[in-house]
Amino acid sequence: MHDDFDAAASYLSERCVYDSPKGPVKGRESIIDAYRAASAWAHATFDEVAYESQVEQSAISDTETVAVIYTDRIREGELWHTHKCRQLLTLDPESSKIVAISYQTLEGEGERLNEFFVASRVVTPTDSEVVHDRISSHKACAANRRP
Asked: What are the backbone angles phi and psi of residue 106, rounded to the nearest 5°?
């Protein structure tokens, strides 16, 4: 199920902090609002948006931190792009709720995403950095399923 923001909220601590590409977002409701807005933008901008995630077993540093690779597949016209990022999710050992989310850009992903934006004519070359910031914080894919 995609864009199930109520389910996503149930996994976040009330005091969760998301270290997003745009800066910190504090509190469960603010994080869900950011995911909801980014997802709405992506669905309004592109012809197709699909999300998936996978726990990165090799990057788990302890039982309280889980690394997740998020994959967004987006289509505009005939052009497809697959964008990946890593997020570190820190869990509260008592409640098992997520208390911190740290966004990590994977090497070359931002540049490839900007190239797709320009090639698909979603944006002009001068606008592509602004759009990259929007989709990078777009981790609505995190709101689509349990990590």
From this structure: -85, 145
3-state helix, strand, coil in the chain (%, to 5): 35, 35, 25
Give how far Cα 54 sits from Cα of 43, 57, 72, 87, 137, Å.
22, 9, 12, 11, 18
How many other CB atoms are found less than 10 A from the CB of residue 103?
A: 18
Distance between CA atoms of residues 100 and 7, nearest Å: 17
Comparing 70-79, 101-110, 119-128, the range with the smallest average pLDDT is 119-128
Crossing angle of helices 109-119 and 128-136, rounded to 10°:
120
- Greatest Cα pair distance, the chain, in angstroms, is 48
Q: Which among 108, 115, 125, 37 has a CA at the least distance from the CA of 74?
A: 115
From the CB of residue 5, how many other CB atoms can be counted at a distance below 10 Å? 16
C-beta separation of 22 from 38 below 8 A = no
Q: Provide the 3-class DSSP secondary structure of residue 126.
A: coil
pLDDT in tens, 9-64: 999 999 999 998 889 999 999 999 998 988 888 898 899 999 899 988 665 555 68
* pTM recorded for the entire structure: 0.77
Strand partners, 101: 18, 89
